[in-house]
Design goal:
The protein has 2 domains: 119 residues, Aminotransferase class 4, branched-chain amino acid transferase, N-terminal domain (D-amino Acid Aminotransferase, Chain A, domain 1); 156 residues, D-amino Acid Aminotransferase, Chain A, domain 2. The chain starts with a strand and ends with a helix. With 283 residues, the protein is of the alpha+beta class. 28% of the residues lie in helices and 29% in strands. The radius of gyration is 19 Å and the shape is globular. The strands form 2 sheets. Strands 7, 8, 9, 10, 11, 12, 13, 14 and 15 form a 9-stranded mixed beta sheet that branches. Strands 2-1-6-5-3-4 form a 6-stranded antiparallel beta sheet. β8 and β9 form a beta hairpin.
Length: 283
C-alpha cells in the first residue's frame, strides 16, 4: 500500500481525493517540486525549498502548510513509510491555491491551499547517461515566466511528445533564435572549448542541478560563460548535455538527426557527469 500526504494527513494513495474545483486542476494554479532522495537523504533540499517558496510568493499563494520544515518532514516520513529509505527515490510536492467556485480572479481570502506529496522509487538510467541520447530542436512556445515551476506544463508536455515521436530523449527549445533550455531540463553547450548556458532570466527555470553543475564548473576551473547559444551555432557545437533532478548529466550525442561532435559524450560533459555523481553519491 502506497501512502501519500494530503492536507496534513497521511492516507493510502487510493483514498486521496481532491475536489474537482481545486484550482490546480481547473487552472494549473499551483507550484510543484520534485526532490531526489538517496538512501533516505534529500539532495539539495534548501534549494528546492527556496525555489518553491519564491514561486508561491510570486503567485501570491499562501505558504500555510507548505513551510520548508513541514515539507521536509513530510518528505522524510513518506520515504520511510513507503519503504524507500534504502536506494533511490523521488518525492513530488505540489501546492495549489485551493478549491473554490471557478472564477479567474483569486478565491476569497482564507481559502485553504491544497498541499500534496507522494514518494516513488527511482532508478537512474546509467547506460543512457554513459552512452548519450538523441535530441531535437523545437520552438519555445511557453509563457514568459518559465522561471516559476508551475503545474501549468502543457508546453513541456508537447515538447517531450515531439521528442518521443522523433525517437529522441529531449527537445532543446529556442526563442528568438537562441536556445533556452530543454523541455524538462537545463541545457549546456560546448562551443570552441567553452561551456555555455542560458543565463538566469524569466525564460528558463533556475534548476537545482544547474546550481550543482555551475559550482562544479568553477571548482574544476573549466572555461564557462552564461551566454545563450544561437540556433545558428548548432553545427559548430562540440558537446551538448542536459541536466535535472532526475536527469543528472545527460549527454546528447545527436540532434535533429546529426551527430554532435564525434557522436559520443565529450570530455567536459564526462567530467561534469562524474563531478555530479560525487555530489550525489559521495564517490
Amino acid at each position: 500500500m502506497t501512502t501519500v500526504y494530503l492536507n496534513g494527513q497521511y492516507v493510502p494513495k487510493e483514498q486521496a481525493m481532491i475536489p474537482v474545483e481545486d484550482r490546480g486542476f481547473i487552472f494549473g494554479d499551483g507550484i510543484y517540486e520534485v526532490v531526489r532522495v538517496i538512501n533516505g537523504r534529500i539532495h539539495a533540499w534548501d534549494g528546492h525549498a527556496a525555489r518553491m517558496a519564491n514561486g508561491l510568493e510570486t503567485l501570491r499563494i499562501s505558504m500555510a502548510g507548505a513551510e520548508s520544515a513541514t515539507l521536509k518532514a513530510v518528505c522524510e516520513k513518506l520515504v520511510a513509510d513507503n519503504g524507500l529509505a534504502a536506494g533511490e527515490a523521488t518525492v513530488y510536492l505540489q501546492v495549489s491555491r485551493g478549491a473554490a467556485p471557478r472564477t479567474h480572479h483569486f478565491p476569497p481570502a482564507g481559502t485553504p491551499t491544497t498541499v500534496y506529496a507522494a514518494a516513488s522509487a527511482f532508478k537512474p538510467n546509467f547506460a543512457m547517461r554513459d552512452n548519450g541520447a538523441k535530441g531535437i530542436t523545437l520552438a519555445d512556445i511557453r509563457w514568459a515566466r518559465c522561471d516559476l515551476k508551475t503545474v501549468n506544463l502543457l508546453g513541456p508536455v508537447l515538447a517531450r511528445q515531439a521528442a518521443q515521436e522523433a525517437g529522441a530523449y529531449e527537445a532543446l527549445m529556442h526563442r528568438d533564435g537562441m536556445f533556452t533550455e530543454g523541455a524538462a531540463t537545463n541545457a549546456f553547450f560546448v562551443v570552441k572549448g567553452v561551456l555555455r548556458t542560458h543565463p538566469l532570466t524569466n525564460h528558463i527555470l533556475p534548476g537545482i542541478t544547474r546550481v550543482d553543475i555551475v559550482e562544479s564548473i568553477h571548482e574544476l576551473g573549466l572555461p564557462f560563460e552564461e551566454r545563450p547559444v544561437a540556433l545558428a551555432e548548432l553545427p559548430g557545437v562540440e558537446e551538448v548535455f542536459v541536466c535535472g533532478t532526475t536527469t543528472d548529466v545527460q549527454p546528447l550525442v545527436e540532434i535533429d538527426g546529426k551527430p554532435v561532435g564525434n557522436g559520443k559524450p565529450g570530455p567536459l560533459t564526462v567530467k561534469l557527469k562524474e563531478a555530479l555523481a560525487k555530489r550525489l553519491y559521495g564517490k
